[in-house]
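Journal club side-thread
Mid-discussion, someone asked how the predicted structure for our own chain would compare to the paper's figures. Pasting it here so we can look after the session.
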Amino acid sequence: MLAKNLKWRKQLSGKVIIANTTGLCFGVERALEIVLNLAKQGKKVATLGPLAHNSFINSELSQKNVKIISCVSELKKNTVLVVRAHGISKNIMEEIKNLGIEYEDATCPFVAKIHRVVSSVPKGCVILIAGNKFHPEVVGILGHCKNEGIVFKNYEELKKLTAKMDTNLEAMAVAQTTFCLNEWLRCTDLLKEKFKRIKFVNTVCAETQKRQSETEQISKISDVMLVIGDPGSSNTLKLKNIGSKYCKTYLVESARQIRSGQITRKKIGLTTGTSTPDNIIEEVLRRMSEILNNESEDEEIASSQNGEDEQSFSEMLEESLKELNTSKHVRATVEKITPNEVYVNIGRKQTGFIPISELSSDPSVKPEDVVRVGDELDLLVLKVNDQEGMVMLSKRRMEQSKGFKEMAKAFENKTPLKGIVTEIVKGGLIVPLEGVRVFVPNSQATTSKDDVLEDLLQKEITFRIIEVDRAKNKVVGSVKSILNDERKKLQEKFWETAEIGKKYKGTVKTLKEYGAFVDVGGIDGMLHISEISWTRISHPSDVFKVGDEIEVYIKNLNPETKKISLGYKKDEDNPWEKIRNNYEVGDVIDVKIVGFTDFGAFARVKEGVDGLIHISQIADYRVEIPQDVLEIGQVVKVAIREIDFENKRLSLSIKEVKDEDKLSG
């Protein structure tokens, strides 16, 4: 894999022992090739999680506008989704297919093999998985288990688990592809003792096994071991742990972490993680070669700087690693702003620049909206190109790094935060805050699924952090959590003062056939349809719409069940009270015929009050049926014969009006 680095091997021969298996593994190299080919075709590309556990690879992909998303709902239109080498759960894959999303499956074939194995076990079989349950590969494996999967991280944890398990059951054991082989062998020996019926499938990747084996062999004959890789990489950390058993072992991300010193005084071993690209390895080898060729100069510089005796290589490397946190961070001054880049003075011979994609977590902003010439910025070093004299920097990631710490603190303390909604994406809202893109899912954006999320765009919202996953660059917020807390306080206050007859200003929340639910201050009360109007209505929507503010009063309440019945009709609007105040027996009034029955006709006196004209009171002659004389909608004069307020009945007469007319005539 390192054919182009043979010259560095030759120069370092006898000083450095380089493992035969280095550079990108097959799975990562395959996934990277898929993404680069898509980008080359001019397609918009997004990866479901970082393509590799390596900041340099992810940074280069970012330059090609390859986006990293944490869930399918964040995917934008006309974008090809790439499933990374770690693989995903069966449910997520089905979601991708059901939504008709264009995708490329870059799942490592060795990982896909595990998916097939765990999904084919018989019912009732226990599935044991050796690995880190939080690692995306293991999360994906669990998502393919037909039965429940049980994850253990090492021999000791497995020993505790099996002590509580029914070992008479049939079982199958698999391992994360990057699991430590020696630890896997210890675990299989234990499982053989515990289970009577168990099948083992050694799914530790063959290339991973080689790297682990070579690291063990080299570290046994070395004074110092260098492992090149990202500290977030699971397999890289395992190589460091293996090397640490036999000699002083350091994990370095790039050549910048190795300084001049007496590197030739020690026998040094070197290996790499599976996500370490060749160019990073080449830079490390070149740096080591430079140290070899300039040893005397380095010693003189070290002596003049430290004013003390020569240090061993391991001591100098230790100092280098201690300075890592500050050496990757620089203070720079903005010198020039262009549409695509911001150039800064970092106080060194190299030219520093910030790509627009690394300027802000809000992709819609312009460079001039973020910085001005003369501004001093804290930046993160992404890449150094000594040949071109350029240093690529990031303001976004520097802020993001600090922001994640703030988000984690807010998560632990349940601190309410405020931010502006800048995007409405499929599945929720995006709120940039402290350099971090906080995702608020639909289910956490409001307390009601009927609320329109678009109304929140460019509005400030208050939310609480409910999930922080630094490995996935994922922060999830919840507005609902804040609203629920506020609602709970309002509810407590409500029940302290609530009593029958008390009036409230309420908001109509939902409408049902049987009535309306009204928010009266943290509590939803039930307003039955019979309590909405004195007149007959077919549905609450005949009177209200969602969002209406209305005045209601408590008709009944139960503090134990927390149920409230509300009233809306006002006594002064009761049409029978208007009859009481404005009419009396003997009055002659105009009414409208609204219905018929065998024994008479119904006439509308006032809205909500109908009176009966008995068939004997329709005319001064015999009437067979009311329809022979009257018709619906006809207005006639009647005399009020009787008012029964208790039973809400009115007796009317057309005949008496006509009799009076005859008498007066």
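Post-session note: The chain has 20 helices and 33 strands.
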